[in-house]
Structure formats: structure tokens, C-alpha cells
Design brief:
Helix content is 27%, strand content 29%. The chain is an alpha+beta fold and 191 residues long. A 7-stranded mixed sheet has the order 1-2-3-4-5-7-6. The radius of gyration is 16 Å and the shape is globular. The chain starts with 16 loop residues before the first strand and ends in a 13-residue tail after the last strand.
């Protein structure tokens, strides 16, 4: 989720349903992400990927057995999306996932991101993942940092000035949350 400033609380939206994404959601997903790429700093991409690339990315997430969710309004409009991806490709990271959450820019701060992230956490726990990492673009993105902290993430570090976008240097904020038993027990199947 990408927000440049914290605005006053706004009433939550009625009747939001969190569900698995479908092929037909790709246009809305691409539009939501495209806006954040062009106007925000939550993503360090500088050119919005097209629908075919977003379709490919979604298929890759689903092929790994990981959740890719959307928030749907009562009128069927896609309000946001979230997914979990492998944190890193090496085998030792297999119990750790990274989350991504993006909300339509005109409804940020109305609870959609929280609903998406809470369900994503629950689904990743059910899959047996043990750690979730959030890599938040831009240390000024306080809404995203606070969202993660409200759902049990803790700040573990900041990488200073690792990206450059919109004519300025940007930090990356790292947050982490244990899932299920975290590192207290061995995962199923041993290592």
C-alpha cells in the first residue's frame, strides 16, 4: 500500500468481501498497481506493467500454492489486492513469505488494506509458513508501516537511500511477523 501522508480517519466501506483473485480481476489489479507505480513510492517500479505481465505474475504466485486475494465491494468493484510471494528463492527461505498489499488510491485509509493483510496472514499460517516479511517502499510511507505494526509486524530495519524515484532517494523499511509457531518449533518435514 502506498500513502504519502496520514489523513484523518475516514468511515470504513460497507460490505467488503475478501476472496481469491480471478482471471477477470486482472484489469482492475493492473489499474490499481499502475497508479501506485506512476504516482507513489510504495513500489520501486517506474513503468506500470501491462495486464499480460500482471497476469503472468499472478499465475506464478498461484503456481507456488500461495494466496493472491482481492477485496471486492458490494457492487463487485475491486478495491484492492494482496498476495504472498516467496521471500527469496533459496531453499533455506522456504518457510518465509513476503507480502504485498495495494489499495485503490481513492479509498486508502478506509480499512481495505487491513482486511486484505489479515486474511493474507491467516491463509499463509494455514499453509504452514512461519515468517512473513514486509518490504515497505519509502520510510515516509507511514500508513503502510502502521498497518503492518497494527497486525503484529515489528520493525527490523531500514535500508537507507536504496532506490531513486520521482527525483528523490527512497528508503526501504523492513518489518517481520512470525506466523503460527514461528521459530519456536521445527516446521513439518524437518528443515
Amino acid at each position: 500500500m502506498d500513502t504519502q501522508a496520514i489523513s484523518p480517519p475516514v468511515a470504513p466501506l460497507p460490505a467488503i468481501r475478501i476472496r481469491p483473485s480471478a482471471e477477470g480481476d486482472i484489469g482492475a489489479i493492473a489499474a490499481i498497481y499502475g497508479h501506485h507505480v506512476l504516482h507513489g513510492t510504495g513500489s520501486f517500479e517506474t513503468e506500470p506493467p501491462g495486464e499480460e505481465e500482471m497476469r503472468r505474475r499472478r499465475a506464478d504466485i498461484l503456481a507456488r500454492g500461495l494466496p493472491y486475494l482481492v477485496a471486492e465491494g458490494e457492487d463487485g468493484t475491486i478495491l484492492g489486492y494482496a498476495y504472498a510471494s516467496a521471500y527469496r528463492p533459496r531453499a533455506a527461505y522456504r518457510n518465509t513469505v513476503e507480502n504485498s498489499v495495494y489499495v485503490r488510491h481513492d479509498i486508502v485509509g478506509r480499512g481495505v488494506g487491513r482486511l486484505l493483510l489479515a486474511e493474507l496472514i491467516a491463509q499463509c499460517e494455514a499453509l504452514g509458513a512461519r515468517q512473513m516479511v514486509a518490504v515497505v517502499g519509502d520510510s515516509a510511507n507511514l500508513a503502510s508501516v502502521r498497518l503492518h505494526e497494527a497486525l503484529g509486524f515489528r520493525l527490523v530495519g531500514t535500508l537507507r537511500s536504496v532506490g531513486r524515484k520521482h527525483g528523490r532517494w527512497l528508503d526501504t523499511v523492513l518489518l517481520q511477523r512470525p506466523l503460527g509457531e514461528g521459530d519456536q518449533t521445527d516446521p513439518a518435514g524437518g528443515e
